[in-house]
Amino acid sequence: MAGNTSTPGATVTSRVMALLGAFDEHHRRLGLTELARRAGVPVPTAHRLVGELTAHGALARDAEGRYTIGRRVWDLGHLAPVQSGLVETASPFLHDLYAATLVTVHLAVRDGEECLYLDRLRGHASVPVVSQVGSRLPLHATGVGKVLLAHAPAEVQERVLARPLRRSTPHTVVNARVLRTQLEAVVRDGWATTSEEMTLGAASVAVPVLRRTEEGPDVVAALGVVVPPKRLQRSRLVAGLQVAAQGIGRALGPG
């Protein structure tokens, strides 16, 4: 949630950003009062600014009077370099991987201390998948998230491990010592796996996407698949993921 922008001296820009930032994975539709509360903006001010944002397409209002992120914000988001460059380059490799496996395929990057999903191809199998393009999930509870956390700077890892880890299912690893051991194994082995840690009935395998730089290989993203736990053929999936990830890294070229 955004900070309290109702304090004196808050700019119009900070209030607009607070209103947009009030939406998240669990709050996709908000009434005006709740939107103002989550943004820390007085209701009269929120009413005025939300009206302007809606008129410009940054927000949309549904039949029940609640607000959602508008198409204009979605269009602008696709102009971000991480979207237009990485997603476009990775797309054919994601489709090849999907064609070979027919399972759900994910491309994700680390955004601060969260896992941001850039692309997703939905598999044929009936597997509960909570991720969507643009959604953010905990780094510690997903395959792609564990890959990204394992290769994150030490200070990021320490911040994540120092705070209470959210338990999404009974199988979520919330013990910092156990998670640290898992992250070390991810770096050593080159892949991560989870079983029903984010959602029951779903397992995942993921690998890093490496790009060559002058300082050496840099992990720019994680590529993963989601399957039913009983279909978790790890060696076969890891092999396919690594071929696709290597292809993406070569296509990206030196950083």
Automatic annotation (TrEMBL):
Domain HTH iclR-type: 10-71
Name assigned to this protein: Glycerol operon regulatory protein
Superkingdom to which the source organism belongs: Bacteria
UniProt keywords, alphabetically: DNA-binding, Glycerol metabolism, Transcription, Transcription regulation
PROSITE patterns: HTH_ICLR, ICLR_ED
SUPFAM superfamilies: GAF domain-like, Winged helix' DNA-binding domain
Origin species: Nocardioides bruguierae
Residue ranges occupied by any IclR-ED domain in the UniProt entry: 72-254
Keyword Cell wall biogenesis/degradation among record annotations: no
Function of the molecule: May be an activator protein for the gylABX operon.
GO terms classed as biological process: glycerol metabolic process; negative regulation of DNA-templated transcription
Entry-linked InterPro entries: GAF-like_dom_sf, HTH_MetabolicPath_Reg, Tscrpt_reg_IclR_C, Tscrpt_reg_IclR_N, WH-like_DNA-bd_sf, WH_DNA-bd_sf
Keyword GTP-binding among record annotations: no
Molecular function terms from GO: DNA binding; DNA-binding transcription factor activity
